[in-house]
Amino acid sequence: MTMPPWTEIFVATLLLASGVVVLVAALGLWRLPDFFSRMHAPALASTLGAWIVTLASIVHFTSHTEEGALALHVWLIIIVLSITAPVTTIVLARAALFRRRQAGDPLPPPLAGRR
Predict the structure, then answer these.
(1) In whole angstroms, how far apart are CA 114 and each of 22, 89, 98, 106, 110?
(2) 110 by DSSP, 3-state: which?
(3) Which of 14, 18, 61, 99 would be 49's cystine partner, CB 3.0–4.6 Å?
(4) Using CA of residue 33, residue 87, residue 44, residue 30, what is the dihedral sign?
(5) How far apart are CA 19 and CA 62, in angstroms?
(6) Measuring CA to CA, which residue among 84, 82, 40, 12 is closest to residue 20?
(7) What is the pLDDT of residues 71-95, one digit of tens each?
(8) Stated pTM of the model
(9) Counting beta carbons within 10 angstroms of the beta carbon of residue 47, is it exposed (0 to 12), middle (13 to 18) or buried (19 or more)?
(10) How far apart are CA 100 and CA 47, in angstroms?
(11) Alpha carbon distance 18, 6 (integer Å)
(12) 3-state secondary structure of 59
């Protein structure tokens, strides 16, 4: 069973967009100065990139079903990723703060609006 050309183009565009988002995140890793700044770009971009790939997968697998039903089994993957990516980022930030305190290094300054 072949896909219609418009779905192939749409899926390819979504996958390219996801690649661009992840490339921008990689540039953020390269350009940002310290660990806490560097962990922000990939955390956001990986989640956005995963959502874009999920949308591309839904379109792809839906176009392959004969009865035209939505293929929503891909949602299980993105739900797990959407839960684990922020939790992992928080755990990494807390571990880095703990290591800085143990080493006696100065901690990052607090946020501007907080006391």
Answers:
(1) 32, 21, 21, 18, 7
(2) coil
(3) 18
(4) positive
(5) 22
(6) 12
(7) 788 888 888 888 888 888 889 889 9
(8) 0.75
(9) middle
(10) 27
(11) 18
(12) helix
Q: In the structure encoding, which two tokens stand for residue 20, read together?
A: 């661009």
Confidence at 97, pLDDT banded by 50, 70, 90: confident
- Give the separation between CA 4 and CA 110, rounded to whole angstroms: 53
- pLDDT at residue 114, rounded to an integer: 54
Write out the H or E segment, with its range, that includes residue 87. helix 75-103
User: What's the rounded Cα separation, in Å, for the pair 85 and 5?
Assistant: 34
Separation in Å, CA 51 to CA 11, 18, 67, 104: 13, 9, 25, 40
